[in-house]
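Repro:
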Amino acid sequence: MRRKLRVAAYAVCVRDDRLLLARSPARGGGHEWVLPGGGAEFGEDPYDTVRREVTEETGYRVTVTGLLGVDTNRVVLPGRFPARTVDHHGIRLVYTARVTGGELRHEVGGSTDLAAWHDLDTVPGLTRVPLIDTALRLWRERPPTGRLDALGETG
């Protein structure tokens, strides 16, 4: 089994009680909403990754205003050939960001096809990736460790 590590950075941009999201094709068909962001290129600092990815996916330039936390996931994915399964470990840095320029537009030829602002109270009704819920909890709760499972730990 192949092992793969991926470091990615995502932005929580909230303005006027609205969250900026991008839409991506879902595995198995359809679409799902994602946070703007994505994988770091080799040698790229995640801080620069999140700024680049937000611009690519939404057209906006952002200023990173804080680090909310780190989320990890691990999943075994099927490869193109049965003997080539992949043990995928994702490390996802979640930042807060503020729009400072640019204009909302949709990505062309990338991993997303639509960018839009959504009222925070409508987000639970969207078809979305679980990272959105994690990121919104981090944004609301601001755990000092940057880890949601560490809330309530007593040392």
